[in-house]
Write a structure and sequence with these properties.
heterodimer; A: 294 residues; alpha/beta; Rossmann fold; ProC C-terminal domain-like fold; eight-stranded mixed sheet; 8 strands; 47% helix; elongated; B: 282 residues; 12 helices
Chain lengths: 294, 282
């Protein structure tokens, strides 16, 4: 997105064999195996580890956190207060921002929300917003909405991928080659989403606009309705949101076993590429951590 | 046959309009009540025929004239509504055919009888229109669609629309929409009654007395429909407006979606429409 120069970004991970690592290196991002080094040369810290790892990371880098640091957690279900609590043993007024984003940040069409912690200033929030707006939509919310956001746009791409797979199957069934079917399905969803975002109209109205009387589309929609399509989607968002809360509960009670933590993790990595510059100086760090010995 | 010439005088102004009903059943009764309520036609200008007095008593109470003679209705009216049962109609048309002149406007309310059939059974010069009303015409909140036959022109269509708008929504449509209208609104009224009943039952289950629940259910439907009609907004938008995040409404809507209510309603409209088509073919 050109918001930040690659050399201003530092990422750390104990496992240097991850494909994400070489990807980052190729972009010119500074790489280290030391989380502490990352903290030292950064102003904005993205904690991009799995939720159960967060407490361990905070323990590790806590002593190096200074007043200037903005700690941004993207970990699902990890509350601002839990992070602030952990960090407060090291730093009296840690600046914490919690955000929830999604994978399409990779193609700069992410959906991100953030909530600011007790000591994070308005400018800190705005800085994060500026950064994340470069990779998609970004807005501030109250923290208690973040679980719902997880259910909707956090998990949302998975629902879309599932839908696209199935749409492609439909196309193939009716005679299209798979590649073309996938391409057309994806473009249809992309186009529809774009129309909705750019329109003042309600999606129901936009749907009506496509349905000529007695035509193909309305016949198809009837099938969707018969299958309870809408309720399935509502169920999905609800389930994801509820599960997020459950995980948060478990995390709060620190019930996750070290064994679970040692499992291989799929890391969520935020990628920002060089060229333009942003208002205030910021070096951005990405933590990735596979396993932690106690 | 009787040469009618120019009697009664052909006049398009409502007070001078002589209106006849062949058949005096529920639907005809609904229309006439609407006409009278709106003051479009004086009761004394209305003549209705039916084989027995069973239905006609109510018409007389309204101030209308009645007869057992269909021909008399045709002789004494300019605008003639055909409101018999479908299987009766062919016989009635044969009966009145000699008396039908070029000044007449014949409007059929008979379900499933096409304009083609009507024109076949009436003199070739007859101005024929076909209308499909629904029951709430009785309370001037009906939904009616009509189509015109070959000889019916803009004037006749305008007259019909102006008269019947007193009973509710009245729109001209291609004849192919009439069966759809049956499925949507003719029968549709029954779907709404069913929904109202279910709403009330839900309330009763939760502890509200039945009579109160029923009245509130009806008012809810009325109010929602009124908002739809008056704001002209898309129903999806109005629905969204009622749904506060995490509130009661969205929880309830989720239940409705789980029950695939939308698809079921679509199924209902489709079934009624198809049945109307099938019946018309008989």
């Amino acid at each position: 997105a050109g918001v930040l120069a690659a050399h201003k970004i530092t990422a750390s991970s104990p496992d240097t064999d991850l494909p994400t690592v070489s990807g980052l290196r190729k972009m010119g991002v500074n790489f280290t195996v030391s989380n502490k080094d990352t903290v030292k040369c950064s102003d904005v810290l993205f904690l991009a580890v799995k939720p159960p790892i967060i407490p361990f990371i905070l323990e590790e880098v806590g002593p190096d956190i200074e007043a200037r640091h903005i700690v941004v957690s993207c970990a699902a279900g990890v509350t601002i207060s839990s992070i602030e609590k952990k960090l407060s043993t090291f730093c009296p007024t840690p600046k914490v921002i919690r955000c929830m984003t999604n994978t399409p940040v990779i193609v700069r069409e992410g959906a991100t929300v953030y909530a600011t912690g007790t000591h994070a200033d308005v400018e800190d929030g705005k800085l994060l917003e500026q950064l994340m707006a470069s990779v998609g939509f970004c807005t501030e919310v109250e923290e208690d909405l973040i679980d719902a956001v997880t259910g909707l746009s956090g998990s949302g791409p998975a629902y879309a991928f599932t839908a696209l797979d199935a749409l492609a199957d439909g196309g193939v069934k009716m005679g299209l080659p798979r590649r073309l079917a996938v391409r057309l399905g994806a473009q249809a969803l992309l186009g529809a989403a774009k129309m909705l975002l750019e329109s003042e109209q309600h999606p129901g109205q936009l749907k009506d606009n496509v349905c000529s009387p007695g035509g193909a589309t309305i016949h198809a929609l009837h099938f969707l309705e018969s299958g309870g399509f809408r309720s399935l989607l509502i169920n999905a968002v609800e389930a994801s949101c509820i599960r997020t809360r459950e995980l948060q509960h478990l995390a709060d009670q620190e019930k996750i076993s070290p064994a679970a933590i040692k499992k291989t993790l799929l890391d969520k990595v935020k990628l920002e590429s060089p060229s333009l510059s942003v208002a205030s100086a910021s070096k951005v760090s990405l933590f990735t951590n596979k396993s932690k010995k106690n | 046959g009787v040469a009618l010439g120019a009697w009664p005088p052909v006049a398009m102004e409502a007070p001078e309009l002589w209106v006849g009903f062949v058949g005096a059943g529920r639907m005809a009764g609904g229309l006439v009540r609407g006409l009278l309520q709106a003051g479009k036609v004086p009761a004394s200008n209305i003549l209705a025929s039916a084989p027995s007095d069973k239905n006609l008593d109510a018409w007389r109470e309204l101030g209308c004239r009645t007869t057992h003679c269909n021909l008399e209705v045709v002789h004494r009216s300019t605008l003639v509504f055909l409101a018999t049962k479908p299987h009766i109609l062919p016989g009635v048309l044969e009966e009145i055919r000699p008396a039908v002149g070029s000044h007449h406007i014949v409007v059929s309310l008979v379900a499933g009888v096409t304009i083609q059939t009507l024109q076949r059974l009436l003199p070739p010069w007859t101005k024929v229109l076909r209308i499909m009303p629904n029951l709430p015409c009785v309370v001037q909140a009906g939904a009616m669609v009509f189509s015109r036959g070959s000889n019916a022109g803009d004037e006749e269509a305008a007259l019909l629309k102006s008269l019947l708008s007193s009973c509710g929504l009245c729109e001209e449509v291609p004849e192919s929409y009439i069966d759809i209208h049956t499925g949507l609104s003719g029968s549709g009224v029954a779907y709404v009654y069913l929904f109202a009943e279910a709403l009330a039952e839900g309330a009763v289950k939760m502890g509200m007395p039945g009579a109160l629940a029923s009245r509130i259910a009806a008012q809810t439907l009325l109010g929602a429909a009124k908002m739809l009609l008056e704001t002209g907004e898309h129903p999806a938008k109005l629905r969204g407006d009622v749904c506060t995040p995490g509130g009661t409404t969205i929880y309830a809507l989720h239940q409705l979606e789980k029950g695939a209510l939308r698809a079921t309603v679509m199924d209902a409209v489709e079934a009624a429409t198809n049945r109307a088509c099938d019946m018309a073919k008989d």
